Each structure stands twice: as structure tokens, then as C-alpha cells.
Fold this protein.
Amino acid sequence: MNHKVTIEELGGRGDGIVRENGKVIYVPYSAPGDVADIKLQGQKGRLRHLHQKSPHRIDPMCPHFTKCGGCSLQHVEAEFYKNWKQNLIKTALSNQGVADAIINPPEVSPIGSRRRTTLQAIGRGGGNIVLGYAEKGTHNLIDVASCPILVPEIMNFIGPLRDFLKNTLEAKQKMSVQITSGDNGLDVTFNGKGEAGLNMLMDLAKFAEDNDLARISWYDRSLKNPYFETLAERRKPFVTFEGNKVYFPAGAFLQATEAGQNALTRIMLEGIEGASRVVDLFSGCGTFSIAAARHAKVHAVENNEDMLTSLKTSANQMQGIKQVTTELRDLFLRPLLPHELNEYDVVIIDPPRAGAKHQMQEILDSDIQRLVMISCNPITFARDVQDLEGAGFTMGSVTPVDQFIFSPHLEIISVFHRR
């Protein structure tokens, strides 16, 4: 049965919120001010009919919007969207008792700038496949012909990839394809169950040649310890960090957009100004280490050997940078201790989504005077801020960096000085 409501605000995940009789109802793809009929399914309301449109509502740019679960906010205008992203941080901080933060306007990556993605595929039999992204909140795959947030190089690759998989996938066979756009071509990994047979290996090598791919790899997820097996490397894929080439391994973590990477790097460099020794925790293949090494000696710590090897190899080939040392270490199990941290002027930390509670505690207990913190989770960020302020740090202004446009995800960067 339809139920008439007025949407009050947008929640933290981008769904519209309605409050009725002490209950909260979440309505995806709605906007504050929408008067709508919804179909209630527990705490969720499904949009059935709009009686009156929100003043913030615009037409979405993608034909797959509301079916594909990748975007939740193409239907709201840019200024409202920016304010909402800013408020995600404000709300998370005020929930932890941090009320006086200066939050800068978000640095939003442009349309068509996302340089990495993972497409899911499933065979339907008879040469048919579905290739795309999962529907919101389900494992149901939505067939996607285009995606406006991807860089053109990946967008143009969807068609050839679809044709290749039509001849490859059997009925019900599932595969995911990880695509990263380097500065010199695409790096593509096929992620499936089992070994790639001889025919498949030959087909993939030809596919790489026909589509001028930089590298193509296979990842057998049925193995106990899966690894990236390079099938053809026609060029070593690289990206540029502050004018320096960094070669990256298959499956490497890179910032999702170049604009986002540049915004984070610019603020990080302001944060380490004057420092002579810097430690970069969760360094990956060196987004921040390489940029920082133009100004200071850098020690990069990371738990992925391939990424560290790439960082070290790339740094060894560079002119005009200071010494870069690396350390393979699991910072969750073995965080750097205060006496180790005390050797540095500044800590840069960019932990995974779960945060790095143990490592943060060691930073609090050390004599470190300056910290550049990058986070992709407003909630763990706010928790860390509260701890840092309790330990005598003052937070500088906070900059939201929006690389995952039209979604609730957000990168945050701020510089902390010990009082």
C-alpha cells in the first residue's frame, strides 16, 4: 500500500529521511522537500510517485541511475550536494564533541575522472552476459553500457571487454574485472575461480594486443593465497606523483582520481613544510612518500611487498629527491612505537577504512609534534580527532576531498600540531 510522505533531510548514506511516530524511514533517491508516495518495506521506503519535487532535485545524467547501485546522489543539484558532503564531517565531529572545526568547501573531482573500477560479469548462456555493477543493497547485477564518472579510457573499454567475455563466460560463470587507467594505458586483472587454461591464456594475450593494454593479469580467487599472475606486460603501467613516474603493481591501491590525489598531495605538502624527516604510514606505492621526498627524507611503511618494491624501484630512478627508505610491516599487529616515531618531525598516516586505533595510540604516546592525517571514514576520523585533541593536539582546517562523486564516500585531510 502506498504511503504519502514529505522528505525532511538526507541521511549519512544519501537516502532521504522521514520521521513518523518515533520511527525513521529511509527513502533512497529522494531529496528534502519531495512530497512522494512510498511503498514501505520495514525501515525502507521505495519511491513510487512524486507529487511535488524538491527544490534541490535535478535530472540525473546517467540512464542507469537508481538501477545501478554505484551512485546514490545524481538527482540533487551541485551546491546542495557539496553542503551535504561538508555536513557529513561536521556531524561526525560534533557527535564526538568536536564543535569548532573549520571545514573547507569540498574539493570535488570532475565528471569522467575516476581512473579505477571493478566490473562484475556473469554468463547467461548462448553467448549472453551481464556486465556491470550490483544493484543497491543486493547482489543482483545491472548491465551497464556506460558510466559518466569513469575516465574515457575505461569507458571506451567496456564495449570490447563485453565482446570478449561473451565468448569466454559459460552460463552462470562469474568473473570480476579490475581496471586501472595508468598514464600509459590500462592495467586489467581478470579475477575468476581456477587457473586460466592454455586457450584462455592465448586469448587474453591477443585481447591485450588488440586493445593496446599496458598489462593483463589473472587472479585465481580459489587459491588459499591468491596472487596476481602477469599474463602479458606490454608496458609497465605508471602514474605520476608530483611530476615523478611511479610504476605500480597489479591490484595496487591508487587514489581514485588524479584531481583527488593532487588535492590531498597539495595539502600534505603544506603540512610537512620545514620538516627534514618524515614517516609515511600505510604508504601504498608512494602517493605521499614520493611527493614528500622532494623536501625531506622519507621512511615509507606498508604491509604490501609488491607496492613497496614498486615505490623503492621508482624512487631509485628519480632525480632531485631526498632519500626514501621502506619497511614491510603490518601496522595493525606491529604499529610503530613511540621511540621509533620520535626519530621523525612529521607523521603522515592514511589508514584503511577501519582506521588504525593501535597506531594512533602510539602516536599519542610519542613526542611527535606534527601529524598529517588522511581518512576515508568520517566516523573513525572523528574518533581519532577526539583522542588527538585529548592528547594536546590542535586540528587545522579540515578539507573534504570528493573522489567518489554521487556517493556517500569521502576522503578527509587535516594537519595536527601538538600544543
Summary: The chain has a mean pLDDT of 93. The first helix runs from residue 78 to 95.
